Amino acid sequence: MIISYLFGSVPFSYIIPKLKGVDVRKIGSGNVGGTNVMRALGLKYGVLCIILDGLKGLLPAMIVGKVLGLDCSLLALLSAVLGHDYPIFMKFKGGKGVATTVGGIFGITPYLGWVFLAVWIPIVLISKIVSIASLIGLLTVAVLSLIFFGGTSIPILYFALAGISIYKHRENIQRLVRGDERKVDLLKMVKRREKNSQKEESNC
């Protein structure tokens, strides 16, 4: 579990922007997470950080699950998420743990990971608000885990992870209530990325 925590503590969403000369803590929401990296550096780097943060949950959950079984896999995922949210390498000031949580969900109950994406993607595209899409997605997964895995420890962890995420999103929730939550237009980012790629090709 200590190894899972330390792995979860690796701040990819801080390291990658820093290599580009950007301190993500001083931009946008100041959150050390993929969405804020997307705001700071664009779609490519944001997606890269989200994937790497997802692997922090996926790999411990899968590896520990194969070796030690389900309950240890759940503990490994919890440790990784706590590492991401409260990383020892960043003075315990980390991200909000959504990508790491979802990565672990894919490792333990893959089809519930796809359910999360099926909920998250349309909400983000319509509302352009990542926080509300993430919270609704995690709560949906937690409820479905209770229906399909009620006799296991899975719902306990998934509800706990949803609760942790709600706590970490408390400032976002306050902004949602006020009506001034930050928005992310993914379609616009994709179009901008395509335009830039076309320009690069025409310059070659």
Description of the molecule:
With 204 residues, the protein is mainly alpha-helical. The chain has one domain (2-190). Helices cover 76% and strands 0% of the residues. It has helices at residues 2-8, 12-19, 34-41, 43-68, 70-85, 98-108, 110-127, 130-148, 154-168, 170-178, 186-203. Helix 4 packs antiparallel against helix 5, helix 7 packs antiparallel against helix 8 and helix 8 (130-148) runs antiparallel to helix 9 (154-168). The longest helix has 26 residues, at 43-68.
Task: Jot down its keywords.
mainly alpha; 11 helices; 76% helix; 204 residues
List the helices and strands and how they pair.
Layout: H1 2-8, H2 12-19, H3 34-41, H4 43-68, H5 70-85, H6 98-108, H7 110-127, H8 130-148, H9 154-168, H10 170-178, H11 186-203
Helix pairs in contact: 1-5, 2-4, 3-4, 4-5, 4-6, 5-6, 5-9, 6-7, 7-8, 8-9
**How many DSSP H or I helices?**
11
Helix content: over 70%
Distance between the termini: 50 Å
Our count of domains comes out at 1
Q: Approximately how much beta-strand content do the residues carry?
A: under 5%
Q: Please write the string of helix (H) and strand (E) elements.
A: HHHHHHHHHHH
Number of strands: 0
Shape: globular
Largest sheet: none
Structural class, from secondary structure content?
Answer: mainly alpha
Compute the average pLDDT: 91
Could you give a short description of this structure?
With 204 residues, the chain is mainly α. The chain has helices at residues 2-8, 12-19, 34-41, 43-68, 70-85, 98-108, 110-127, 130-148, 154-168, 170-178, 186-203.
